[in-house]
Amino acid sequence: MRRVLANAAIALPLITAACTDTGPSPYDDEFPTSGGDSVFGGAPSNGSLPDDNKADAIYPAKLFLSEQSPVRNQGHRGVCSIFAATALVENLYVKAGMPNPDFSEQYMQWAVKNQLGDFPDTEGSSAQSNIDMVVKFGTVDESVWPYDISPWTAANDPACTGGESLPTKCYTNGEPPAAAATAKKYKLPSLQYINTNSIKAHMVAKKTAVAVGMTFFFQSWNHRLSKLPISSELWAQGAVTYPNAKDKTLSLAEHEGHAILIVGWDDDLEIAMRDEQGKPVLDTHGQPKKEKGFWIFKNSWDTWSFGANNPYGAGYGFLSYKYVSEYGTAVSAEVPTLSTDPCVVDPASCTQTGTMHTYSASPAAAIPDNSATGATSTIHVTDAGTLAGVKVTTDVTHTYRGDLKVTLTHGTTSKVIFNRTGGGADDLKQTFTVAGFDGALAGDWTLEVEDGAVQDTGTFNAWTLEVATH
To answer: Which of 15, 191, 313, 427 qualifies as a FRET site for 368, CA 20 to 30 Å off?
Structure first.
């Protein structure tokens, strides 16, 4: 992600990022966008994802998921996808019953680049990589490593002298404090890509928010760097409309992106369409044309300017359905299970509090290419015990792991533990902590590996099931 340089011709006020109304800001990047490539970060194309809308589905005209953490401030760093992902993790933990979760964006920025290994040579990342990191490694409380609103410069480290490719430490503002190594890690059960046309279906079924990364259109967002006229009224409302042709041409040349958290929608909301001069688009009768239907979203530009007058709260906004459908990519995750039982938090720790069971299978099965029928393997368990924690280790060779979806089933419960992440990396040899299973240990445990796209192929070699019981 790149820092944004301000255009003095834009009349929007510049106030300090600390939300105090103290006059002009000393910074030139109060509302940073992101490099367009990073916010998508290897996500599958929208058309390759299933449409989860049922033919007879009827959705409410308006929905707002109020179980949200406060609007945060990304300050002067182009880390919008970190904030969108953290907002999603906080929403999921609120949904799980945690009061006032506040997770460290600073730690997530470091962990995505150093633990997951994605985007080490840029400030940016994608919401899907960020959530994937939380699934695999977990994030920490904000108090462990508080967020720094300003990027590192040569004043912090001589290596951070500017330019397009810097040492990773310059993008993460150094290394985490020693306390981060032993701090409690907050994980998610699994990542889920969502067809942008299925966001309503997901939100109605799961009652959880959706992180969306998208191409950034400057006039649509009424951003001060727009080369076309903007509206301070729409900016204060947080209203983002579908871009006109000129806005598309100019903004696509800038190649920027942004990421936000969708928390609801309003089918009946109407906002006037604008031409490249910022004037109303008129119909054949000379009446202003209006765009109808908008997502309600939570942004990360603080509360003092963008969306200051939004009815759902300062810092929130309205985003065109059509905009997201054509230019967005969406991701969410399952609600975690809260427990003080170390067997649930980390099954490996159950050697002191319960019994560990380990089972393995070696199916050595070819994975059907681009098929909903995957390669499956079943382990039949006869041991007794009550489930406390589950881990799965996969051994899959594949030439494009971003094609793969892995599902674990026991009894009537199925959990997706890997869902088409990792882009073009090879193989899937990884250990997953899987939440959401309870009841008896005994019975069939089935792992299915599905390839959801053409060309690349692979083999489901083996897998290991580790189960802790009380």
So the answer is: 191
Residue 324 belongs to a domain: yes
DSSP state of 110: H
The tens place of each residue's pLDDT in the chain, 470 residues long, gives: 322 323 322 232 222 222 222 222 333 345 555 555 555 555 667 777 777 777 678 899 999 999 999 999 999 999 999 999 999 999 999 999 999 999 999 999 999 999 999 999 889 899 999 999 999 999 999 999 999 999 999 999 999 987 778 999 999 999 999 989 888 899 999 888 999 999 999 999 999 999 999 999 999 999 999 999 999 999 999 999 999 999 999 999 988 999 999 999 999 999 999 999 999 999 999 999 999 999 999 999 999 999 999 999 999 999 999 999 999 999 999 999 886 555 544 544 544 456 889 999 999 999 999 998 999 999 999 999 999 889 999 999 999 887 899 999 999 999 988 888 766 678 898 888 888 898 999 999 999 999 988 888 999 999 999 998 88
416: containing domain = 342-469
What is the rounded end-to-end Cα distance, in angstroms, of the chain?
47
Q: How many domains does one find in the chain?
A: 2
- 14: region left, alpha or beta (phi > 0 left; psi from -120 to 50 alpha): beta
Contact present, 300 and 84 (Cβ < 8 Å): yes
Q: Say whether both 316 and 354 belong to one domain.
A: no
Query: Domain boundary at 265, 298, 333, which?
Result: 333
Is there a single domain that holds both residue 377 and residue 314? Answer: no
- C-alpha–C-alpha distance, residues 3 and 270, integer Å: 33
Instruction: Please check whether residues 463 and 431 belong to one and the same domain.
Output: yes
